[in-house]
Amino acid sequence: MTTFNEQHPAHIGTTVINEAENVERQPPLLAVGPLAWIKKNLFNTVWDGLLTIIVLLIVSSVLVSFVTWTVGQANWYTITFNIRLLMLGRYEPEYEWRVTLVVLLFAFTIGLALAAWSRIGRGFATFIAVIIALTFILPVVINATLPLPPYYASAGTFKIGGDNGQAPQGQIGFTGKAGETVTVQLADQYDGSDAELAQVHSFADAAVNTALNAAANRLIAERRVAELTALLATDTLTPNQRSRAEGELSRLTVPPPVTETLMLNQVPVTVSILHGTTMEPLENGVVTFEDADALLTVTLPEDGWYVLKKELDDPQAISILETTGIYPILERNVTRGGDDSTPATGSISQYVRMTDTFTTEATRPLNEEGKELPFIVVTSNQYRGTAVLNDYLRLYVAPFLNQIKVFLAFVFVVGAVGYIAGRALDRRFSPSNRPHATTSRLVLWLLIVLPVISFILIYGLTGDSGFLPLTDTRRWGGVLLTMLLTIVGIIGSLPLGVLLALGRRSKYPVISTVCVIYIELVRGIPFITVLFMAQLLIPLINPALANFPGAFRAMIATVLFTAAYNAEVVRGGLQAIPHGQDEAAKALGLNGLQVTLFITLPQALRLVIPPMMGNFVGMFKDTSLVAIVGLLDLTGMAQNIVSQTEFLGLRRETFMFISIFYFVFSYVIAAVSRRIESTGAGQAIKTQI
Amino acid sequence: MAALQPDPTPPRRSSLLPAFLRDERILSVLGQLIFAFVLVYLVSLLWGSIMTSLNSKNLTPNLGFLTNRAGFDIGERPEWYSSDSSYGDAFKVGLINSLRIISVGLVLTTVLGVLAGIFLLSSNWLLRNVTRGAVEILRNTPVLVQLIFWYAIVISSLPDFRTPLTVLPEGRYAIPWRWPIELIILAVWFIYPYLNKVNTHLPRRILRTALLIATIVAIEVAFFFVPASYGFAQIISSGFIVYVVISVVLIAAATQIKTGFRWQAIGLTIGQFIGGLLFYFGVVPNSGFPIDLFPTLFISRRGFAFPEFHPTARFSEWMAYVALGVTLALILWFYLGRVTEQTGRQYPRPLYALLSIVVFVVVGWVAVGAEPAPTTIPVTGADGTTTFMPLADARAGNLLTTADEQLYSTSPLLYIAPVQRVNAAGVVSGYVSGTQVSPEYIALLLGLVVYTAAFIAEIVRAGILAVPKGQIEASRALGFTTSQTLRMIILPQAMRVIIPPLASQYLNLAKNSSLAIAVAFADLVQITYTIMNQSGQSITGITMIMLTYLTISLIIALFTNLANRRFQLVTR
Predict the structure, then answer these.
(1) Phi and psi dihedrals of B312, rounded to 5?
(2) How far is B28 from chain A (nearest CA, A)?
(3) Given an 8 Å threshold on Cβ–Cβ distance, is A510 in contact with B35?
(4) Which residues of B touch A529 (CB under 8 A)?
(5) What is the structure's pLDDT at A107?
(6) A148 touches chain B (CB under 8 A)
């Protein structure tokens, strides 16, 4: 019989360390680190993996096409040109300081509020400061390093594109600043093939555009003929399709190359640059191009209009000239003066250069018959082709950043000042057990006073106070009108909603019935109906109200509509207060009004802060509906802009921009509301089932 | 001490009011009367001044104007409406259009919203976050901007009317014989374990599934690269030599396998080599059968074109069979439910019910179609005389109208595909048949459905998350499968939380349909606005709109309350 020791000799007294088994091994490849995360979240099962691949394909294709459209095909000058319209509507320029003041006051209050209820880490503040600094630096860098794309002008008298085509214009006006250099040369880097022509991407006048499109269409026709021939040779067509394909093939004709039909750049052309008012050529301003080396360079003597004159002898030939320093122009009609009672004192035409918003109000040059010369207007001299990233940055990103950088910097600085002031005030004045008492009280008072001040500032005071004259409410528009509608809506609907909720819970049947009828009626009809009602019925109440401003009618409609929804939310909050509070207060001798005012309402209102904020975000989005009744809020202004000839095809860009604005605002408010809810500041009751 | 004694004579408060006016009951009644009086007075003031203004313009509100001639045409209308119809008829057309949007929209948005809600809870990080991003974008942009986006941008990106997108792309396709065979093999392989409850997660099974799929993919790839001509003459072609080399390498590799899989691998590789040779030398044909695909849906800038479905003369007979099937399904449902309750034995109730309905539908279709069609039919010629000719000749000669087809067809439902009208020059100019739906309808429907679905997704997600985790853990502990947990534990409790906000989202959809005015869709609000402008009866018009929307909201609220009652917690 063996003992344990004999059977297991190694276990007594000796510790065996088997070197070979104690080697440190790496964990399996897919067990830790980013690969493990990918496996667990994206490729957990086979079907999961397939789903990931499908979603990845869809998302990447959507993103790629979106980015290509944004950079390559979108014309963002509608935003850079119209940003003031979108932000302020047609608000009088001389009173713009009032809006700026209101915005800065709000920024200050937000800074104070952040000091009172939140902590802004140093990292976050530097991050924002870096972004603001970028908006200053980026345009400078972009403008310094990237050149502007050239403008291709056509010369000749031949009508390109057949009878319904375009003939080049002999003289065309452009604006320029003193000291700028304008160069013209033959666009001769193309070796004469249509493929090169079709790929031009830059500003081009209508005739050049037609020629380039003809070249592109010819290539498309060639390719289509090849496609159809190949298709007809296979056996994959139904008889229907076959007959249609044969018909299409017989109708397709491939024209000869455009460079040959137009005798492109093969005939001498004389180009001159004339002064806009005197119509005399500038110094060194007349050159005859006979070969590619000839170059016309002038320096503009002063701000104003100039004329590019092109003369070509042959009636069949066309020349394409490549110019720098000449850029398309947008015309803007500005009305000055006028208010609700007196009409405007006439409109002035401003000519704004697209690339750097250089504006001139000089009169346009006249031709020999005294008629105004055509000028390089953006609609017929658009950027054609797929833009490259350089042009996108230089033409759209830099000017946009230039326009918003000062405003953003101001807002940031004032907000920072508010934050710092808030912290300083707290350190100096707040008691140690409530470290934010001073600032929070200050902010609450400001929040009550600020809307009133803003409204007075923006609308003005009647009477003979020359300090704040009334502004024309018909000129309110854009973000200004949206914000006014939202703020007035919030201020008005909140008390009305509370009253309605209290009335609905009242023990007097008459009052509660009236409130119930009102609430259920208003909640059952669409907002647009209430807007129509306000539009149509207010003038009928009293003939004196026929000119009641449309903006105010919309405000009344918004207040009445949102009050019903607020009433339901507040009612939910009132129901959540336990009966015991009510009974205890009554036992202490408070009467009904005191119970409501001091016990029930404060608790109920704190409870319903999150859903109430959701209501307000909903109202903010619903202010877009006033566009249907003709008010020019942000959406209405966008529709208005898109209906003008200069911006006719640019719907996507404009609406994309305003969607971003609505999204950012709504998302921020919703995120703040979620923060409030999660920190329990509203003491929301979490339901447990 | 004197100071602690209560004052024997309480101070007299002289009250000016007599006793009954200090009674709370009287005061409350009095207060309500005064309130009602003030309210009625203010309202009558308002009403009076409005009436005076209207009367001064001869626009007293009345309902008589509804019989006046409308005088305007409506873009999307049923056939009985013309500009000679009355205002009342125009209002009816608007109501029909609104109901078309609301009814289809409610169904679609529920489906899309629930799907999106499930995606939001998926374990796949990418799917979850992509859906989250989409839902956030949709919820934070105004619905009007979204509608304008759908209408002006998406619809205008669709191809031109003459070259539409077609579902079921048109063409003649040759389906090789191997594809149906491969599909049948795959179907059997994947369905078999569910019928016989085989564990599908064994490594053996996963390996074999992977091998099967790899084999099929390899075959398809091989056929993709097969040269157009092959056979004995092309024995030296590079493709064939590569194939032979790869096959020999595979067979050699298979012989090296040491585990029990060895003989299967060897058999597989030798089999595929022999099969490849057989195919290459033409012993096994690679032909297929050609099918012509005709499009069933045209999508273009001018809207959608669907097939038409018409009930024929035999439709009612078929419906009788279907009714029998539905009755049997209901009987089975309730009977099996009782059996399960009493004995505990599980039956696949939905499967049996569905099967019975499907069987009766198919049997009914075949039985009804088996009755022969009349051999000769009367055909009215252009001059009014009636001749009798065989049905086949009449069909060949295109002498039958839709009504005739409805009479003489052998199937219960008549299917008419949309067909483009192409003139001699090959130019498309319309549709000969098929129901068409305008782009405004599509844009409004898509915009509303997608917008409301984003909100419903959040509601569904919140509802499912509201079910306490302990419930799921307990059901797992009891041995419930995932689908049983979902069906019997999660969904009923989630429904309680989902249905009230879902109801309010349905109401929102109905009310947002009034924004059709922004996409130029002739709905109720738009038409009534035109009526109001033309006849001047603004008060009546607005009242009509309000009453209609209140009725629609009431009906939706009624149904959702019924559903809510079924799921509500019964409390004291």
Answers:
(1) -100, -170
(2) 7
(3) yes
(4) 514, 525, 542, 545-546, 549
(5) 94
(6) no
Question: Chain A contacts of B54, Cβ < 8 Å?
Answer: 540
Digit-coded pLDDT (tens) for A320-333: 888 898 888 888 88
A528 CB near a chain B CB, below 8 Å?
yes
Average pLDDT over residues A284-291: 82
- Provide the residue ranges of all domains of chain B, joining segments of one domain with +: 87-164+437-567, 171-293, 309-416
Q: pLDDT at position B507, please?
A: 93
Q: Considering only CA atoms, which of A635, A151, A142 is closest in space to residue A396? A: A142
CA–CA gap between residue A422 and residue A430 (Å, rounded): 11
Identify the CA nearest to A272 among candidates A204, A171, A178, A368. A171
A511 vs B: CB within 8 A: yes
Give the mean pLDDT of B35-41: 92
pLDDT of residue B27: 85
pLDDT of residue B241: 80
**Mind listing the pLDDT tens digit for each residue in A466-500?**
778 888 888 899 999 999 999 999 999 999 999 99
The CA distance from B336 to B501, in Å, is 34
Secondary structure class of B291 (helix, strand, coil):
strand
Q: Determine contact: A512 vs chain B, CB below 8 A.
A: no
- Of A418-422, B96-100, B435-439, the range with the lowest mean pLDDT is B435-439
Q: What angle separates helix A609-622 from helix A478-504, to the nearest 10 degrees?
A: 140
ipTM of this model?
0.87
* Residue numbers of A between 275 and 304 with CB closer than 8 Å to B: none
CB contact under 8 Å between A655 and B546, yes or no, is no
User: Nearest to residue A644, comparing CAs of A393, A331, A429, A260?
Assistant: A331
Min Cα distance B456 → chain A (Å) is 15
CATH code: domain B87-164+437-567 is 1.10.3720.10
| Cβ atoms B451, B343 nearer than 8 A | no
Tokens of B469: 């985790």
CB contact under 8 A, A666 and B466: no
d(CA A659, CA B314): 54
Is the pLDDT reported for residue B274 higher than 70? yes
Give me the residue from A52, A624, A689 closest to B144, CB to CB: A624
Sign of CA dihedral A37, A40, A42, A43: positive
pLDDT band for position B253 (cuts 50, 70, 90): confident
The sign of the CA dihedral B257, B261, B266, B272 is negative
Question: Which pairing describes strands A202-204 and A151-156: parallel, antiparallel, or unpaired?
Answer: parallel
Looking at the complex, report in whole angstroms how far the Cα of residue B339 sits from the nearest Cα belonging to chain A: 32
A119, pLDDT greater than 90: no
Where do we find the tokens 């009449």? B394
Integer Cα distance of A227 and A418 in angstroms: 67
pTM: 0.85
* A241 to B170: CB separation less than 8 angstroms, yes or no: yes
Res. B363: pLDDT tops 70: yes
